[in-house]
Amino acid sequence: MEDLRLRNNSFKSFSVSGKMLGKQFSIFSSLLRELKPVYKDNRFQRIVWLGLLNFLSLLLLLSWCSVTKSMGLLSFTHLIFFDTLCLCICALSIWVEQKKPNAHYTFGYERFEVLAVFVSTTFTFVSSIFIINKSIWRWISHTQIHTGMLIPESC
What we know:
This protein has 155 residues and is mainly α.
């Protein structure tokens, strides 16, 4: 009888307390376990630092965009945002590169590179659509541009 109870409980994925059959389950610890061998790669470290630098510059540019209402600065901010997303794809492809073939993925994860290129080009198209949309909206609404803040931003 106890064996049947254990078998029925094994199909439950999560409980309210976050325990799974007496073992503590944490998404953060599983993420760290997956990223620890990848972080040793120098390419991944560079991508992480570039991603952080891009994100910080994105926050600064977003604050300046709200003050100046500059279309050129806004399009550059969109470009930085989608570049940050492409850096995330590069980091994910380094993680996938280290995965080995198994019974479920007999070719390994080789096809992921094709999907990564597809997603990167899709990000580029979406970025251009955002910029075209904002340009048309700006052309219709004739928004006032504050040029006093643009000189420090260009430096």
